[in-house]
Amino acid sequence: MKMTEKQQRFADAYIELGNATQAAIEAGYSEKTARVIGQENLLKPAIKNYIEAAMNKIKSDRVMSATEAVELLTSIARGELIETVVAGEYTVDKPPDAKTRMAAAKEILKRYPASDRMLNAQIRKLEADADMAEAKAKVFDGEVENITLNITQFKEEEDG
């Protein structure tokens, strides 16, 4: 059985508000009968099924799928995801460090068989990439420290 337009408005309002009486009023039912109509509407199969389906969709949209998780891990392992690091009163955007990238790569590899020669070569490449990234991060961290020191010295000279 299909819902009427008013029942549709009720169901949508109920999903948003979580209150049958308020949803009935929002949908255009009389305030005098809203409490009773709201409860009755929640028992009607078409409305009940619609609300349950919508709530399940909302719930599944909030939970990350396995594909999304692997895509996120891949983005981290490749150094594509940029994080903001606070250094004193300054913020710096930087890619994930080598440890984080390696951890992401290992998490990805846990999901695939490890007996493949090509896979082992990819692991060695990831480890080499991680070592390079770690070395670059050390240089980058040193540069950030130097910039912070230079700014601090400049402010002190300016104030003093």
Q: What report would you give on this structure?
A:
- The protein is mainly alpha-helical.
- It folds into 2 domains: 58 residues, Terminase, small subunit, N-terminal DNA-binding domain, HTH motif (Arc Repressor Mutant, subunit A), CATH 1.10.10.1400; 94 residues.
- The protein is built from 7 helices and 2 strands; from the N terminus they run αααααββαα.
- A two-stranded antiparallel ribbon has the order 1-2.
- A hairpin with a 2-residue loop joins strand 1 and strand 2.
- Helix 1 packs across helix 2, helix 2 packs across helix 3 and helix 5 runs antiparallel to helix 6.
Beta-strand percent range: 5-15%
Largest sheet: 2 strands, antiparallel
Reading the helices and strands in chain order gives HHHHHEEHH
Give Rg in angstroms. Answer: 28 Å
Number of helices: 7
Morphology call: elongated
Total beta-strand segments: 2
Helix and strand content put the structural class at mainly alpha
Number of folding domains? 2
Overall pLDDT: 82
Helical fraction: over 70%
Q: Major sheet: order of its strands?
A: 1-2
Given as residue ranges, the uncertain stretches (5+ residues, pLDDT < 50) are none
Distance between the termini: 81 Å
Any descriptors?
160 residues, Arc Repressor Mutant, subunit A, two-stranded antiparallel sheet, SPP1-like_terminase
Describe the SSE topology.
Layout: H1 5-17, H2 20-27, H3 34-43, H4 45-62, H5 66-77, E1 83-87, E2 90-94, H6 98-109, H7 117-159
InterPro entries: SPP1-like_terminase (IPR052404), Terminase_Gp1_N_sf (IPR038713), Terminase_ssu (IPR005335)
Keywords: Coiled coil, Viral genome packaging, Viral release from host cell
Coiled coil: 116-143
